[in-house]
Design a protein that fits this description.
There is one protein chain. The strands form 2 sheets. The chain has a 6-stranded antiparallel beta barrel. It is built from 4 helices and 12 strands, in the order βββββαβββαβββαβα. It folds into 2 domains: 84 residues, Elongation Factor Tu (Ef-tu), domain 3, CATH 2.40.30.20; 92 residues, Elongation Factor Tu (Ef-tu), domain 3. Helices cover 14% and strands 44% of the residues. The chain is globular. The protein has 202 residues and is mainly β.
């Protein structure tokens, strides 16, 4: 489990697709202490929970390898990742850690498309659209995860919604580089999903 509070910005420094294109082996450079990364550990990369299969240090910089499988490539923006892509990183939650955002599974539900960006004096406003299937789980003042970042929904209208981003978040995540027509990973709030399922079962 995760909280949607980003703890590092990683960069893809190695990329090896299989011949069938069904699996991508990614090497991600980060600032984490190499001794704290165990094989089998879960790290959310732009909101996608991936499993560490190897790690090390090269040129004074920590790296870890993960595999992005066919399902991940089909449902998320991972299909567009390549060498140089920057990723929001978050380590898995440990017992006793502060829950600063909201409960995030790291299982991206799909993608949202950025419609517009408005840079205001003290924040930025982003409007995005998603599918009808996911839009029904998005509510004003509710929680949502975009590229692994826990955010509060500002407004909702049919298939579109908006979020307001403070300068700190723009600086310490990849959100500062978002522009119109970009695709981002979206994970809807787990509580909204379960509430909808309970309503369907009545």
């Amino acid at each position: 489990m995760f909280t949607g509070i980003i703890t590092d910005l990683g960069e893809i420094v190695g990329f090896t697709p299989t011949a069938q294109g069904q699996l991508h082996r990614l090497r991600i450079a980060c600032r984490y202490d190499r001794t704290t990364i165990a094989d089998g550990a879960s790290i959310a990369c732009n909101g996608v929970c991936l499993t560490v299969v190897a790690s090390g240090v090269e040129g004074g910089r920590t790296w870890f390898d993960v595999d992005a499988a066919a399902e991940t490539l089909a449902l998320t923006t991972a299909k567009h990742w390549t060498v140089g892509t920057r990723l929001n990183l978050e380590r898995a939650l440990k017992i006793g850690d502060e829950l600063g955002g909201h409960i995030v599974a790291g299982h991206a539900d799909g993608v949202a498309t950025l419609i517009s960006r408005e840079d205001l004096p003290d924040m930025a406003r982003f409007e995005l659209s998603t599918t009808r299937e996911l839009a029904r789980f998005i509510a004003t003042k509710g929680s949502i995860t975009l590229d692994g970042v826990s955010l509060t929904v500002n407004t909702v209208r049919d298939l579109t919604f908006s979020v307001l981003i403070i300068p700190h978040t723009l600086t310490v995540t990849t959100i500062g580089g978002w522009n119109a027509r970009d695709e981002v990973n979206i994970e809807v709030d787990l509580m909204a999903r379960y509430a909808a399922r309970l309503t369907e079962m009545k």
